[in-house]
Amino acid sequence: MANVPVKERVKVSQNWRLGRCREGILLKWRCSQMPWMQLEGDSLYISQANFILAYQFRPDGASLNRRPLGVFAGHDEDVCHFVLANSHIISAGGDGKIGVHKIHSTFTVKYSAHEQEVNCVDCRGGIIVSGSRDRTAKVWPLASGRLGQCLHTIQTEDRVWSIAISPLLSSFVTGTACCGHFSPLRIWDLNSGQLMMHLGSDFPPGAGVLDVMYESPSTLLSCGYDTYVRYWDLRASVRKCVMEWEEPHDSTLYCLQTDGNHLLATGSSYYGVVRLWDRRQRACLHAFPLTSTPLSSPVYCLRFTTKHLYAALSYNLHVLDFQNP
């Protein structure tokens, strides 16, 4: 917000703190979806069935140009997850394949990666990591001449729901179902594929991790089926998280986002509830239910900027506008 007048910055900041916003719907679709979403510049990328569509924001940030900028296809089943990296879209599909699409050209490659659906994918520094229902995580090169050449296959003993590469590019973390292994969070060496450490020691069976993200090389956030967001600092302890926040209605947490400072946002499994948290406090600051009882939906993915929060549900893409409440 450096180019925004100070008075406007203060107003928007107070709106976030007080939960003042205007709700709107950016996109609708007829069939129930499990969409994933990414933001880059003035563009929004969102998966719908086996496509990924790119839209351009209008100047207000609270609406989209209706005609997509681009449509990226290639999967035979739904896109489960995707990331943006090095002018590429790296997508994970229910068909067990990984897709590599160049954003500004027609270049698209897909290759068989897993025996079952690929639930998650990440890409940094020219390396792709993927996790699957087939209980493996794999490491791949992004280099065009080596696409589809597996560097490491890791037996995780559990379905892999989430995955993230460390900012140092030396390791990656997997979030698993916590059924076949006692810890759903494990960190692996990116070069050798060997297990480096597991996080936590008192997870109940089935406490799968649905979203995980690095904030720095030594700090992570995770959330999932056991209704908690956990903050891990590898410098302090790998046995216990340093902070945790509990979803007050005992709902599974599908996704999380942070501003890298004090603000944390989570998406719950019932009634499309988005919650805002101040990480210096235990209690939730604000809750925004985006669906009613007949159309209850999880928040499958959420992203926010300094002025807007975007939440993808089964039938709609919602926006919370904190600039013009």
Automatic annotation (TrEMBL):
Q: Where are the transmembrane segments?
A: none
Outline the WD repeats, range by range.
111-146
Q: Which keywords accompany this UniProt record? A: WD repeat
Gene3D superfamilies, sorted: YVTN repeat-like/Quinoprotein amine dehydrogenase
**What are the GO cellular component annotations?**
SCF ubiquitin ligase complex
**UniProt keyword annotation of Magnesium present:** no
So which domain of life are we looking at?
Answer: Eukaryota
Q: Which GO terms describe its biological process?
A: cartilage development; embryonic digit morphogenesis; positive regulation of mesenchymal cell proliferation; SCF-dependent proteasomal ubiquitin-dependent protein catabolic process
Does the keyword field hold NAD? no
The protein depicted here goes by the name: F-box and WD repeat domain containing 4
Q: Which organism is it from?
A: Panthera tigris altaica (Siberian tiger)
Organism lineage reads as:
Eukaryota, Metazoa, Chordata, Craniata, Vertebrata
